[in-house]
């Protein structure tokens, strides 16, 4: 039986094959851009999932590929470790800090009294140069305005954590398809993909595992310093110092600096000076030395790449930028080397 012709079989397309190819690429890039913009609020969840995938993948390979453990149970175990070691402590500490910040800002007169005592002890005018009371009242208003939104913030936190865990689950459960997809759809040769993968692993080792070690050392040193110089709650503030240590430039001075101020306000000038000396001479220098040494040893990352990347990443992505920033610089350098190599290869093919 004769089939009727398709209605569009004889319609001439106005584009050349080259134009159709270009428009296809533009359409793909545009749709990808729209998806990134739409998911921008939750982009950190997917970035964190990718970073944790790199961190835990050696465990996954050892348990699943080498020891032949059940891949689903291993994946669930990795997710539980993530929740217990990362999510719960971070959320709990954030809540405790917010409660204490609210308590301080509701009673600015306590901070003013402390500043006046520091002025009397040092002879330096602080409240005369700055309108401290107005600043504290504005801070109290700002912090108080956060309270009604805590429920929505908690909901947003749960959504981000849920997306991160959900993404991690499928990255591990479909690891083979994920790795094959990278090789199939990324526009790079296999050797370039290997270089990018090695750069990612080095950055994660240097700026995640290395930074955790640095933060632990600084946390212990800060807690011991506060305990020796009799600052209240040294264990709590030592834990706070662990999280503050991830912030470049500021870091642990946000903990032992106010502790010294507190001791000044209590008339303990010797203890306050002791805290400042230990902070400036020991804790800060240990931070700088360890950060550079571990970045070089654990990931073979140049210190300049680490420092510039930290500033770039934190500005763009927040806390997770501690990894993303140096990674962006490393990828830029790798792709520049790939560009140079491809140009040299193309010129060699022309001359031959």
Automatic annotation (TrEMBL):
It is a multi-pass membrane protein. Pfam families: AI-2E_transport. It is found in: Membrane. Keywords: Membrane, Transmembrane, Transmembrane helix. The keyword Transmembrane applies. GO terms for cellular component: membrane. InterPro entries: AI-2E-like. The chain crosses the membrane at residues 21-40, 46-64, 76-98, 154-172, 208-229, 235-261, 273-294, 306-335. Belongs to the autoinducer-2 exporter (AI-2E) (TC 2.A.86) family. This is AI-2E family transporter. It comes from Hymenobacter glacialis.
